[in-house]
Structure formats: structure tokens, C-alpha cells
Amino acid sequence: MADGAGGDRKSRSVLIAGAGPVGLTAALELARRGFVPRIIDDGQGPAPLEESRALGINARTLTLLSPSGLTERIVATAQPIAHFRIRSGAKILADVDTRRLPGRFGAVHALAQGMTERLLIEALAAHGIAPEWQTAVVAETIADLQKPEVTLRQADGATETVRPDILIGADGAHSAVRKALGAGFPGEALEAYFYLADFRYVRPVDAHFAEITLCDPGMVGRLPVSADVLRYISTLEDFESRIVHPEAVAEKTWVSQFRINFRHVEPMAKGNVFLAGDAAHIHSPAGARGMNLGIEDACWLAWLIAEGREEEYSALRIPAVKQVLKQTYGLTRLITMKNPLAIAARNLLAPLLLRFGPARRGLLHSVAGYDTPKPPWIDWAE
Fold first, then answer.
1. What would the DSSP string read from start to end of 153-182?
2. Pairing mode, strands 150-154 and 135-137
3. Nearest-CA neighbor of 190 among 285, 338, 342, 332?
4. What are the structural domains, with CATH classification, of the chain?
């Protein structure tokens, strides 16, 4: 690549809609390569710290964020998850030691989304870039895909029309950019709802493991948020009555419920308009892949833009997206079973399967996010 060509590419204007983890990562990855992206969001600021939201940060994400210098700060702040357990009542069906994963990083860490966003914002500030909050994309349609024109509206009603060279929609499942493209979002919604609650305890608890207890039917999952906060997530509306708290509860910090959708857009780009993260794909939280897959999108897209190869983005990302959606769909079906015979077969076969090394290694490889293509711009082993 000639220096002149690289310099010309870096002078292109980039507008990123959405300042969640995916949009912030795209901005950071572009900024460290010499671009000056503009990033906007219709919210008032990063996710509240008391709402854990996206929680798992896998080893692939730590690999991807390492060149920016952010990984060390995440690891120092996050809670490593050393074990993943599956129970049926008092019986442990499987216990996978996530520390057995070869490589530089543990398979998965827990960190509340709001903290992840704040660390990204701090890293971005070192490049002189800050999100513009309370600024929304209001375009109804994008006519010119090579030089997309969109209108931005601020909280006071002021509007601005812009025509960036590149527009990145990282603005979530209800993406205004995706809608302005006229792109469909096909898929299906499962009948089951998921319910969650975060509890803060009066004293630190054992936060080094994640656990799913199968209730047959239904399940209750326990996930660490921090040393004194645990998240419980369940397919059962009355799940709070089933929780055995490890310590006295100081407060319930957050509750939520949601229905699971499996959807993705194809292609993930049209002209110079690109979709990433939940704007392009949504799926079950099973496997903790959602935010991580979106961060992968952002990193690949930034690299391709810097290389002048952004037209390859959709073709490179769609296979990974389809693979993760298929995987999380299967995991979700396993934990939402209602048929007694299917439940009995699962409870018998799952622990038997996970006794074999290849199956355990495959599960760890997946949890770590290592089952998607390795980033070619990072030349050290994971």
C-alpha cells in the first residue's frame, strides 16, 4: 500500500451512529489508525453502571482490543470466570475449568457494560474524540449509497444534514441506519421470555464461577458481575423464589425481562453504509456472544476501511454471524426444553459428552470466541 493512498483513505470522513461498545470500538480502532471519526448517540451518556446489561468479555475480544492498549485495563477491572458449571438440582452435571484454555487470556471475564463503555470512552479521549450524546439519526431513506446523506437531530431540536464518506450503523436492534437503508431484519422470536435480576450483597461472594441450574423445565443461571454483585437469569417468571443467595442481600440493583429473537441482516453493507453489532444481528445471550460478536464486527470493519478493502466486510462477517446464531440457537433450545423425555436425555448425555477432552475443548474454544476467523492484523498467537 502506497503512503499516499493510505493518507487519502485516512482523510475520508466517517460517521458512526451509536456509542455503545460496538460503535465506540469502531471509533477507537479507526482513531488508532489515523482516522478522525465522528460518533453520535441519541442517549444521554454511557449505560448506567447499576444496569449490568452485556456482561461477558471473551478472550477473542481481549485479543482484538490489545493493540489499542485497552485490554490491560479491562483485565484489571473485570472479574475472571474460572469455572462454568451445569447443575440439575444438587447434582453437578458438568464443571468446565475455563483456565485450561491455551493462550494469553482466560476464556471469559465479567464486566458490566457501563464500565466497558467508560473504558472505551477514556481510550477514545486520548485520541481527542468524544461521543456526541443526544444526537440522533432521523433519515427516512438513504438514496446515495456512495455518499450517504443523513439528518442529525439534537435534543434541542436543532438539525444538521451531513454526507460522510462512510456511515457505520452501530445503533442497536432498532437501528435507524438499517431502516433508512430499507434493509430487512428477517428471523424469528422464541416464545420463551428471559427474566433477570442483579443483587448486591452485604459482603463479597465467590464470583469466580458461572452456573446454570436446570429446573426441568426451565433454568436459573448465576453469573458474576463483580465481587459483591451477582446476576440471576431465568426462563421462569418466579425465578427469584428459587434463588439460594450466598450472602445477605444488600439491594436488588436491576431487573429486566426480554424475549429472545434470532435475526440478522444480509448483506451487512450497501455501498458505503455498514451495519455492525445489534444493528446487523441479534440472538440469545446463551454463550455470551452478543457484544463480543459486535466488537468483532467493529474491529474487522475498521481494519478493512484502513486497508481500502471495506467492500469485503459483509462477505467476511456473514459466515461468522451465521455460525454464532446457529450455535446460540442450539444452546437456547437446550435450556428451554419442556418435553420430559428430551430433558432426561439432555441431563444424561450432556455430562457424558463433556467428559471427553475434544468436547470440553470445543466448548472452551467457543466460549472464548476462538471459533471465528483470527484477526490477520494481529501477528501474535492467542
1. EETTS-EEEE--SEEEE---TT-HHHHHHT
2. antiparallel
3. 332
4. 3-81+103-190+259-367 (3.50.50.60)
Tell me the C-alpha distance between 83 and 48, whole Å: 28
Question: To 10 degrees, what angle do helices 21-31 and 290-307 make?
Answer: 30
Contact present, 51 and 254 (Cβ < 8 Å): yes
Q: Does the pLDDT at position 285 exceed 80?
A: yes
Question: What are 345-353's contacts with CB under 8 Å, separation 24+?
Answer: 347/88, 347/93, 347/214, 347/216, 350/86, 350/93, 350/94, 351/86, 351/93, 351/94
Residue identified by cell 482484538 is 64
C-alpha cell at 363: 466448548
- Write the DSSP assignment of 261-301 as a string of letters: EEEE-SSSEETTEEE-GGGTEE--STTS-HHHHHHHHHHHH
Helix (H) or strand (E) holding 5: helix 3-10
208-258 pLDDT, tens digit per residue, is 999 999 888 889 999 999 999 999 999 999 999 999 999 999 999 999 999
Instruction: Read off the amino acid at residue 332.
Output: T
Q: Burial level of 33, CB count in 10 A (0-12/13-18/19+)?
A: middle
Task: Tell me the per-residue pLDDT of 160-195, one tens digit each, with 9 for 90 and over.
Answer: 999 999 999 999 999 999 999 999 999 999 887 899
Q: List the one residue out of 84, 354, 344, 51 whose CA is nearest residue 213.
A: 84
In sign, the C-alpha dihedral spanning 292, 78, 49, 19 is negative
Place of cell 442481600: 249
